Amino acid sequence: RAKTLEFVGTGSVSFADGSSEYVNVDGIVDDITAYPFTLAGWVKPTVDKNGHVITLTDVSEENVYFSLFHATDEKLYFSARNTTVKNAASSAVTSGVWYHIVGIATSATDRKLYVDGILTATNTDSVSFPSGLDRASIGSLQRATPSYSTANIAQVGVWARALSESEIQNIMYKTYDDLKGTELTHLVSWYPLDSS
């Protein structure tokens, strides 16, 4: 790539260690009711801590969700779980550095994780689309036993379609006001989270 990767925006929301802070964005689950879909956002992980960028969950179930997150093993993940977890995982990342991460679920057997515009991992294990998704949140995995994030998060977007690799590489440099053309097609929601 010709550009040097830089965080886009004017700030972020910092989710504190051990707190129950998160942003409830439940309207998304009304629009994401089947494959395909795309979850995207910027995250600055904190070492040895979990950080859920955006999740779609069934709050009454422990093991039914989609999550774009970083984990204590210092990797980025796109997880699909309808009883058994199926991950697409990156190699190790550096704490305190901004990463643009994108999870694409094209079908029950086609999930991809992009980090900084590069396809990093795929997973083809079958995960049927859950019928009970009722919570979408930024900064938390809301389920029977919730999990909260420790990370800075910003510029989170959700599409009711699979973005192409070139679209991913374009949107990672943009705020909502910069999106145009097909980048807006089936865009369900965009959360800048640009308060510092």
For the record, give the distance between the C-alpha atoms at the N and C termini, rounded to a whole number. 29 Å
Measured by DSSP, the beta-strand proportion falls in 35-45%
Helicity level, as a percent range?
Answer: under 10%
What structural category arises from helix and sheet content?
mainly beta
* Biggest sheet details: 7 strands, antiparallel
Number of helices: 2
**What does the radius of gyration come to?**
15 Å
Instruction: Determine the mean pLDDT.
Output: 87
Number of strands: 15
Low-confidence stretches: none
Return the string of H and E elements: EEHEEEEEEEEEEEEHE
Broad shape: globular
Q: Summarize this, please?
A:
By secondary structure, the protein is mainly beta.
Distinctive features:
2 helices; 15 strands; mainly beta; 196 residues; seven-stranded antiparallel sheet; six-stranded antiparallel sheet
Task: Tell me what you see in this structure.
This protein has two helices and 15 strands. It has 196 residues and is mainly β. Strands 1, 3, 8, 9, 10, 14 and 15 form a seven-stranded antiparallel β-sheet that branches. Strands 2-11-4-5-6-7 form a six-stranded antiparallel β-sheet, with no helix packed on it. A hairpin with a 6-residue loop joins strand 4 and strand 5 (64-70). The longest helix is centred in the C-terminal third of the chain and has 7 residues, at 165-171. It is globular and about 35 Å long. The two termini are 29 Å apart.
Topology:
Blueprint: E1 13-15, E2 23-24, H1 28-31, E3 37-45, E4 51-57, E5 64-70, E6 75-82, E7 84-92, E8 99-107, E9 110-115, E10 118-123, E11 135-138, E12 140-141, E13 147-148, E14 151-159, H2 165-171, E15 187-191
